[in-house]
Amino acid sequence: MTSAPPRRPGPIALLALSLWVGLLLLVSLWVARQSFRWMPVQASNAAPLVDGLFSFETGVGTFVFLGVISVMGWVLLVHRAEKYDESDAEPIEGNTRLEVIWTAIPLVLVMAIAWYAIQINTELGVLGPMEHIHLRSPQEQQGGYAGDRLPAEQVEVIARQWSWEFRYPAEHVSSTELHLELDRPVTFRLVSEDVLHGFFIPAFRLKQDVIPGRAIDFSLTPTRVGRYRLRDSQFSGTWFAANQADVVVETADDHAAWLKQAAAAPLQSGLSVAADEYADRQTNPHGGWPTVVPAPPPQVNAPGSSSLPHDA
């Protein structure tokens, strides 16, 4: 007994399928646009590029997810067995055309995401190329300004367990709160004095490992006035979650005034939640696991504040 040949879908079925695919595309586009609202505010010239890539990937992922769920729902509702039917399913052979289609579609989607990501990565490289520099001596890593190796617009970022220090070589100013001028390119030089840290400013869409024994230079441009938050994105020990600092983007006049005020201020202890909590723990011991002793708070001109509200 030979089985009947499979029926080809009629025009009504093709129309319904086309309408459903169109609906999935519309929903995916809507979700892709909504994804911009899930991110923190955009505060650097890199943020729109990263958010655009995230939106594209969100739209593609939504379309694939809804498409798979739709096929599963269609099979469950239309092709389920009748009640009390315990017979074996009808043996069928593979469908070469269908196999080619469901292999080609993921290939095209993955290649599209890869191509878009490469384009974004290229544009980010143009905005702020990164350069790894091997530190040549312990003295160069431990202290002081880096002399002629640091251009005037560069900010040196020093990570420790568990505090941040920011140095402005041109003005001989240091702080534990990062101040940047609006719409002016800035080059960071990241240095770690102990272990691996992560320099992460969500509003800038910027995340870079800070590697011991290396200096990493890269540039960006702040594009929005506000107060944002710098976080340590790498587990670096007990107080890594408290290893945070405020990032203040301000106008040129406000930035110049802050630098002038900071340059006139004497050195004092900077902000270090870890050092404060460790000192309190030594005074009022209450058990717990042993921990690495935090580095002393850096001596800076402008400690800043950790209690002011921030945008992201």
TrEMBL record:
Record-linked InterPro entries: CcO_II (IPR045187), CcO_II-like_C (IPR002429), Cupredoxin (IPR008972), Cyt_c_oxidase_su2_TM_dom (IPR011759), Cyt_c_oxidase_su2_TM_sf (IPR036257)
Main location group: membrane
Transmembrane segments: 12-32, 52-77, 98-118
Domain of life of the native organism: Bacteria
Signal peptide start-end: none
Membrane-topology annotation of the record: Multi-pass membrane protein
Broad enzyme group: translocase
Functional summary from the UniProt entry: Subunits I and II form the functional core of the enzyme complex. Electrons originating in cytochrome c are transferred via heme a and Cu(A) to the binuclear center formed by heme a3 and Cu(B).
Family classification: Belongs to the cytochrome c oxidase subunit 2 family.
PANTHER family reported for this sequence: CYTOCHROME C OXIDASE SUBUNIT 2, CYTOCHROME C OXIDASE, SUBUNIT II
Protein name from the UniProt record: Cytochrome c oxidase subunit 2
